[in-house]
Amino acid sequence: MCGIVGLFLKQPKLEPELGALLSQMLDIMCDRGPDSAGFAVYGAGSPGFVKLTLRGPAGTDFAALGAAIGHPVTARDTHGVLSVPAAEEAAVRAALARLAPEVRVVGAGARMELYKEVGLPADVARRFHLEAMSGTHAIGHTRMATESAVTTDGAHPFSTGPDQCLVHNGSLSNHAGVRRLLAREGLEVTSENDSEVAAAYLTYRMRGGDTLGQALEHSLGDLDGFYTFVVGTESGFGVLRDPIACKPAVMAETDDYVAFASEYRALAGLPGIETARVFEPEPAKVYFWDRAA
Q1: Is residue 148 pLDDT above 70, yes or no?
Q2: Which in 41, 89, 112, 248 has the greatest CB count within 10 A?
Q3: Is 149 in the same domain as 229?
Q4: Mean pLDDT over residues 118-127, rounded?
């Protein structure tokens, strides 16, 4: 059992409150996943630049690391974010691997920042100052581990492509075969978690030209098991439940936002929820919103 939350803003007026709203939603889902938590926030970016979210051991000196590679790193507890010219991304990644092999790149993109750690969701959100973050959309996850260890590597979200991330409640029965397919296509899945396989599968489909909506449609035939996915891209937000839909899910839509949660109580504190269209997403139906549309 895990908890999923997501918030996609249609209007700029709520963007300064995005982090505070998601933090509240994440905290309410604590009892569905007290082992670890994480979130991805799509905030402001700079044209021609890529944000790299880094994760290091406790005590990592991100300031010194930034000085060594020639790009300042903004530290947030065990994570750090640096913005580099897109043309220099490969060189910076190589420098990081050489200078600090214990530090991992956990997310990359024009706008996405990704944070996750072991611990209670409220504590994880507080450590990374989620309540102060702004942006257009965000997704979060609270994990109760059932098939792999309680580690930061096993925490969600998983990101396997630029500005792409996924959170998942459920279990995939054919993840080993899909993992082998992805390896042949050059997509490495580094954790034991089947959710990372799902994230990499969507990246594989979108590399081939699919939109997020099309990639989710294809997953209905290629991913076997029970699942609810919430996915973020640079401009989009998608939701999909398996054909049986045995994992709980509820959504709310107003003129200002679209929100998702595993249970309604995580939506109850959102502004305007009393007049929102509240509904249960249908089985095997792709829901997708895009700010570029």
Answers
A1: no
A2: 112
A3: yes
A4: 95
**Model pTM greater than 0.90?**
yes
Distance CA 6, CA 190 (A): 25
CATH code for the domain of 203: 3.60.20.10
Among candidate residues 2, 30, 165, 246, the one labeled active-site is 2
Cβ proximity of 92 and 84 under 8 Å: yes
pLDDT tens digit sequence for 238-282? 999 999 998 999 999 999 999 999 999 999 999 999 999 999 999
pLDDT band at residue 37 under the 50/70/90 scheme: very high
- Residue ranges with strand state E in the chain: 3-9, 36-42, 49-55, 74-76, 79-85, 104-109, 112-118, 137-143, 158-161, 164-172, 225-232, 236-241, 250-253, 257-261, 277-279, 287-290
Domain of residue 168, residue span:
3-44+118-290
| Separation of first and last alpha carbons in the chain | 34
The verdict on 172 and 148 lying in the same domain is yes
Alpha-carbon span 225 to 141, nearest angstrom: 19
57 and 188 both lie in a single domain: no
Q: Is 165 a catalytic residue?
A: no
- The reported pLDDT for the residue numbered 147 is 64
Average pLDDT for residues 140-156, to the nearest whole number? 81
Are residues 200 and 87 both part of a single domain?
Answer: no
Q: How many domains does the chain divide into?
A: 2
- What percent of the chain lies above the pLDDT cut of 70? 98
Domain boundary among 92, 110, 128: 110
Question: How far, in Å, are 14, 136, 159, 249, 290 from residue 256 at the CA level?
Answer: 8, 11, 27, 20, 14
